[in-house]
Amino acid sequence: MTFWKFFFKNTSMIKLPINSIEKILLIKQIENKGKILDIYISIDHNINLYDLERLCDAVGWVRRPLKKVKIAIDHSFLTISLFCKKNKTKQLIGFARATSDNAFNATIWDVVIHPEFQGKGLGKALMDQVIKELRSSDISTITLFADPHVVSFYKNLGFISDPDGVKGMFWYPL
Amino acid sequence: MTFWKFFFKNTSMIKLPINSIEKILLIKQIENKGKILDIYISIDHNINLYDLERLCDAVGWVRRPLKKVKIAIDHSFLTISLFCKKNKTKQLIGFARATSDNAFNATIWDVVIHPEFQGKGLGKALMDQVIKELRSSDISTITLFADPHVVSFYKNLGFISDPDGVKGMFWYPL
To answer: Which InterPro entries match (chains A, B) (predicted)?
Structure first.
């Protein structure tokens, strides 16, 4: 069985990848403003930082220096982006990344879906892929820190908050 | 000002490092069974895995494959160990490591102090050094997942649990 045949058999893809070198895969078709849009997923650290900034602006996140964002992406174990093709251009509409020790633990950061594309199952598709990729690397403890309004979203994906009383804790500079 | 003079001026060390190449620093003297022991701290990924396993055994942790432990240490952003010198041998008595994206976030894992050396301020000394090292890399969000019985220990170090309702969440394979 070739790599791609194996890969297809084990994902929910519905078409051939448009670019196998970059690992860009069609995962879903959605309706948006009366049009059918193809949604692709990419597992690639090579992200246009301005596209990412535009996406983060759209959800109102505090801006971060692009130089540091690049360092963070370069040192993330996993970086996954979602985009849709419109008029021969591609728009970044989702993103997530994870740090890891490459063995036991991973922590997921910066999960974002563009507001226009929320409520269409894309957050679940993105997170399913994150979990699948981490599990394929035999990482057994997948963690994240969830804002209160998305706790139920992650619970529906199988995440547990405070298991056995374990508390997520933060230290910030004064 | 030389590096070491600068370094000494900015730490709580009381003697010269015994091995500046390995960055091993004397941080504390403690009394143990009527003897004064010198406690050293080392910031070095090059750890004897069997010493680490012995330390983890002493606190009753579930054993993990050494091969995976090595991968985890090699891919940790920071690895800090504490040891004491006894009869010309050194004993590993404390350990902590952190994963990070090298820019914004770090997550601390595997914090352990040997039971014989607990209650002597060494956990605080270890964590102070972890925070100091992460802050020196300009990492602003330092996180960890604390078992219920150590939540107050981390609170005393300035960690906050569930800030603004943010929940630590875990996903485990079924």
So the answer is: Acyl_CoA_acyltransferase, GNAT_dom, NSI-like
Task: Give me the residue from B140, B157, B167 closest to A168, CB to CB.
Answer: B167
| CA gap A19, B103 in Å, rounded | 30
* Cβ–Cβ gap B172/A135 under 8 Å: no
CB A148 within 8 A of CB B169: no
Q: CA separation (Å) from B44 to A19, B25, B131?
A: 41, 11, 16
A25 bridge partner residues: A41
Cα B122 to Cα B39: distance, rounded to the nearest angstrom: 9
Rg (CA), chain B: 17
Contact A143 B169 (CB under 8 A): yes
Taking the C-alpha atoms of residue A94 and residue B107, their distance in angstroms, rounded to an integer, is 24
Locate A134 and state its tokens. 């981490």
Residue B137 near residue B104 (C-beta atoms within 8 A): no
pLDDT in tens, A66-111: 999 999 999 999 999 999 987 778 899 999 999 999 999 999 999 9
CA distance B96 to B125: 11
Q: Within 13 A of A62's CA, how many CA atoms are on the CB side?
A: 2
Provide ipTM, 2 decimals: 0.84
Q: How many CB pairs under 8 A join A and B?
A: 170
CA B74/CA A173 separation, integer angstroms:
27
Q: Where are the domains of chain A?
A: 23-159
In angstroms and rounded to an integer, the radius of gyration of the C-alpha atoms of chain A is: 17
> Residues A141, A145, A151, A153: what is their CA dihedral angle, to the nearest 10 degrees?
-60
**Pairwise CA distance, residues B109 & A141, whole Å:** 11
Superfamily for domain range A23-159: Gcn5-related N-acetyltransferase (GNAT) (3.40.630.30)
